Amino acid sequence: MDDPVDLTPLRAMLEQRDLDGYLIDADGSNSDQRYVSGFTAPDPYQTLVTRDGVHLLVSGLEFGRAQSDSAADSVSRLSAYDYHERRAEHGRYEGMIRTLAAFLADHNVDTIAVPQEFPTGTADGLREQGVTVTAETEGIVQKIRATKTPWEVNQIRATQRANEAAMAAAETLIASADVEDGVLVHDGTPLTSERVTEEIEITLLRHGCGLDETIVACGADAADPHNRGSGELAAGECIVIDIFPQDKETGYAGDMTRTFSRGDPGEEARRRYDVTKEAYEAGLEAVEAGVTGAAVHDAVCDVIEDAGYETLRSDPDTDTGFIHSTGHGVGLDVHEEPRVSPSGGELEPGHVISIEPGIYDPAVGGVRIEDLIVVTEDGYENLTDYRVGLDPTTE
Amino acid sequence: MDDPVDLTPLRAMLEQRDLDGYLIDADGSNSDQRYVSGFTAPDPYQTLVTRDGVHLLVSGLEFGRAQSDSAADSVSRLSAYDYHERRAEHGRYEGMIRTLAAFLADHNVDTIAVPQEFPTGTADGLREQGVTVTAETEGIVQKIRATKTPWEVNQIRATQRANEAAMAAAETLIASADVEDGVLVHDGTPLTSERVTEEIEITLLRHGCGLDETIVACGADAADPHNRGSGELAAGECIVIDIFPQDKETGYAGDMTRTFSRGDPGEEARRRYDVTKEAYEAGLEAVEAGVTGAAVHDAVCDVIEDAGYETLRSDPDTDTGFIHSTGHGVGLDVHEEPRVSPSGGELEPGHVISIEPGIYDPAVGGVRIEDLIVVTEDGYENLTDYRVGLDPTTE
């Protein structure tokens, strides 16, 4: 990471609670650890934040790479604390606990805070070794991560560029398909969600990005915001495409949704598209530093309710209408702080958030429009450069 | 999952320790939870194994899918335990803890075992609510997962078919490249690790598989078993290709390694290839139910040491020679139980393991050959159908 991350709030918490350190024990899938250490590895490793440094404990296999790549002030390997001997004597689990206790003692750390998701086996094992372990349940590192450095914003921007290429590839497939018996047809075979998803994935791969899932959902499928979609794509129905890739090198994510229809989806669907677009514009318009995520969400709900559709604000039990929150933070995780929802707190400059209203009903289909933006002092900068329109084009 | 998984050892542990249940609190990236519940979701959910049932607690968004897709005996949604009210009153963390405590109480569960990696925040929160929580550090679910049902073996076999297609695509690229000034050239540009990796990834995508990483490493890169490789591929050097994809639907992994050289890599490299192949054959030959993973590893080390190369058995500190273990279990995780290493216990029918000896030296390069097999009563069945040979072909 080019800018050092600012762990001041974490160190203030340690000082306030009179604790010696903050310990993470996780593998590379844990974004907090990746963020704090500037390092990632497939197997578990440990990151200790003390009042004046960041210290890594890694296996011998990762030692060289951790020394050259990580942002830590010191890197130790397990063998420096006699892991192999301890494991031979005490077994795999207890050997690792004792090694970790020795690592903590070496850094003069007796009392630690750990993240909510820190392994219970490690916490209880360290307690047996005399270490005081307190779970920190506020998500302090997630809060720090919410505010991006300029370098981080650039990484997210780069992923969103790849995302735009993937969306363009998907839109082109849909726009250039033939329509036969109400179904989209490409190269003589029905165009399916799976085929469009493959096109998206291949495009992202060529841009150095990967993803776990993508949504290409048509008709009633698209009325369920969590449905990935499957099967043939129909003409005259809304197709929701939601792409959230992650750069394979940096780990930073992008996120964007567009809704397309080949042919006329009908007056009601078009009205829903227009209302969703109006709500998306109202959401963007509401964003600036100092405004709460809740207020942005309210601005979006206002538009949708005024148009006569339900929201979870007007009816917490509704299955149709706007049935999710307006947005979420995006960074090393696709979903992270802050929230743009009824519980969303004050937005700050450097928050990267999605704005993604939608209107859903199995009888009509689904519509969603989503951009990724960064909050600024007096508004926002849109990190997404992609046309908003229901009719797909090949441009 | 077609066959129900056999949780008998887990329930025996509960009975023996006089505990009411085993609780997992994780998201879909946790393979233990996926295995026990037959369900996966991007966000956290909870799986409770009692003496007579498996019970899921999921968000409203996942409720329908959990009911239709999961293998659980009951599925509850958070709102059934007043999550939203509790969260409004006590905040996000404490609200969730109280909801979970109510879910446990509803199933008459006061005392639980949890996995080593269970969140400390959840464990300590439940303890505050009067639940007795003990971390189970033996990895009991991992042990159960080591033995595959016939259905699971078929899923792994299917992923390995995709893997073979990807390996063939990579081999074809290397075999059909031109050689100019000692470098492989494809379509007029130097053939790189990155280009071959892309070909592998695209082939896997077309077969419904994804992967986090792939190794296409040439020359000195290939002498570091964890180096993914980068840059131009040279003629007359060993290129190690290690592919470990996962099926996107089932989650089951495959794993295979082949080593190729365009042109003569020299006598020493060819000798290392032959010794590695002999060691791989000796490893396969040693496998049968009742034999330990340690004994299989020893059979492999015997061949390599007899040929005059170091192993971690002959020199624990060696940086060259055979510097990793012989293999590992493969299933919902690419690396899981059992181990085919010095600490490997008895192999059982249904264990799916890799056999992957290699010989490494930065001065000569790296060689590795790996198949995936399933242990049977009197030997093994090879789940891999791919020629072993140093010279790449386009067949």
Sum this structure up briefly.
The structure is a homodimer of 395-residue chains. Helices cover 35% and strands 23% of the residues of chain A.
Total strands of chain A: the figure is 21
For the record, the CATH architecture of the largest domain in chain A stands as Alpha-Beta Complex
Helix content of chain A: 25-40%
Give the overall shape of chain A: elongated
How is the CATH topology of the largest domain in chain A named? Creatine Amidinohydrolase
Rg of chain A: 24 Å
Low-pLDDT segments, ≥5 res of chain A: none
Q: Taking strands numbered 1, 2, ... along the chain, how are they ordered across the largest sheet of chain A?
A: 4-3-2-1-5-6
Terminal Cα span of chain A = 36 Å
User: Approximately what portion of the residues of chain A adopt beta-strand conformation?
Assistant: 15-25%
* Chain-averaged pLDDT of chain A: 95
Largest sheet of chain A: 6 strands, mixed
Count of domains of chain A? 2
Multimeric organization: homodimer
In CATH's first tier, which class of the largest domain in chain A applies?
Alpha Beta
CATH superfamily of the largest domain in chain A: Creatinase/methionine aminopeptidase superfamily
The pair of chains with the biggest contact is: A-B, 38 and 38 residues
Give me the secondary-structure category of chain A. Answer: alpha+beta
Quickly count the helices of chain A: 11
